Amino acid sequence: MPEAGRNVAAKIGAQYYETSVLEEFGLEHVFMNMIRAALVGRRSRHFYLAVGPLKNVEPPELQEPHLVPRPPMPTVLASQLSANIDFSPLIGNSAFVDVVFDIHGVPIGAHAACLAMSSAVFCDLLSIVVLGEDTSDTVKCCSNGRDKDVNRVDCTETSLYHNCVHLDHPVFKSFIRLSLTDDDTLVPAKVTVSDTVSLSAFRVVLHFLYAGTLPPLMAHWCPDVYHLAEVLGMPSLVQAIAHISTDQDFLNVEIYRDICKERCSRARCKLLQDGLFSGICLE
Fold this sequence. Notes:
This protein is α+β, with helices and mostly antiparallel strands. It folds into two domains: 1-72, no CATH class; 88-273, Potassium Channel Kv1.1, Chain A (2-Layer Sandwich), CATH 3.30.710.10. 36% of the residues lie in helices and 12% in strands. The protein has helices spanning 2-12, 27-45, 112-116, 120-129, 199-211, 222-231, 235-245, 252-273; strands spanning 99-103, 106-110, 140-143, 146-149, 165-167, 172-176, 179-180, 186-187, 189-193. The strands form two sheets. Strands 2-1-9-6-5-3-4 form a seven-stranded mixed β-sheet. A hairpin with a 2-residue loop joins strand 1 (99-103) and strand 2. Helix 6 runs antiparallel to helix 7. The protein is elongated and about 110 Å long. Mean pLDDT is 78; it is low at 144-162.
């Protein structure tokens, strides 16, 4: 390699030349300069030759490099993918909201990507609501008063953008797909939550999904949050609530750490590799 040759030449104090028999590069140049170097060296050892036939011998010439030396490679430190970030300030923020949960008439804006990387249940739900894709074997839609498997429901047909689709789920009653208005304004998807779910318990669940930790809880909230976490299939939240109920919330530190690792894994798999909920494709 040229870099290795330059290093050796610098160590022994020699001139560096590149040659290529295949490309016929530098052959004549290198032999000519070898002869010049030998004659100049001989002339320097014998002073009387400086005025003789070796007087007009020129020193070796520099060679234009065949391959330009590579610049030093910059040091790049790749940061570890970390989802140990509190996204709770985004709750209720209208920026980039793509789904709205309607609970007891109170709209709560949310972000599908944040929920999908924190909960498998919300990921399956929002894949149908936002994308119209069938990614779950358990979620069912109700059609014409009968339960119908979501595999047989065309969630991409035009009617779903305007009509309410009922869900066979203990927490989520129905949804309306996102749509565009006449002035090209995006209307977020709307998911109606069951009346049996309390507003405070649902807010705690959303905070847990966004932040990966529990907010300060009122004692009378714990049973409702515990029941809602069981229905949504969130064992980490169930265990965290159980620790708080028994005044052992110090045990939740390990749970929160495991949640961060799980969020990183789901973000890498679902959001980055599969491009779930991505609105821009970069090539």
